[in-house]
Amino acid sequence: MSNLTCIAGRMPPVRGKVELGVPLKKYTWFRVGGPAEALFRPADEKDLGDLLALLPEDVPVTVMGVASNLLVRDGGVPGVVVKLGRAFQDISFDGDTVTAGAGALDIQVARACRDQGLAGLEFLSGVPGTIGGALRMNAGAYGHEVKDVLVSAEALNRDGERKTFGLDELGFTYRHCGIGEEWIFVSGTFRGTPGDPDAIGKHMDDIQAKREESQPIRTRTGGSTFQNPDGHSAWKLVDDAGCRGLMVGGAQVSEKHTNFLVNADDATAADIEALGNEVRRRVKEKSGIDLKWEIRAIGIPGEDGAKEGEG
Asked: What's the CA dihedral at 292, 294, 299, 305 to 10 degrees?
């Protein structure tokens, strides 16, 4: 990790909060990971744009939502980690559309739509993350994806310039967005259809019940680990390769759902990443299929798998 005094001297003036050397493990669902060189919580969109425009180009910028589908490596994350707070959580309605800030939880948007009588976005209640993350990976659950309901998205680039992207410009494919990560999403607008709040609520309850029954949602996990290959279910490939319950260090393939890795016993990020790669190796050996990570890994490895950023 680079010298923290150095990064402090290179940060432009901001109105939001800047903290140096903040352990990110307390923010991630896995509860692993090293420190952010600098953690920035912008006061609002202008504050974020000003930072992006003035920050030296060689300083990397990484956006982190609620880190539900994220693995932060043990050595930490160089540069500036942006965490979007309340200023990016507004939800508003205009007829059959809803606009949500990138920091809004997906489930909050689903609940707001239910209360408004707007159907079609119930699937978001089964996506454990924020709207920004949902836009970045074309998140989906229970047969629906963001691309099915998105109208447009607003984003800022490294020059602090704001652009509206229409659905066709975003290049959505399965768990992928086609615009580069130099663009930071700040909001998205989605279209639903008028519906009965009670019926919408029942649909959301059904989704939650299915998640509770089939997924290890009350453990330290990172959500779905691998993408589903065409014509296959990742969990079935993992199970058929004999990986159910497999452990590396403190990381384990969930006994409940084999497309989930869990921090079962004080795992490091290195344990989790090594376990995922061992699963991929075994699946390739068994079926000939290359599993692709759905979980995003950021940062640098720790030394010899040591736990960095404690405290």
From this structure: -70
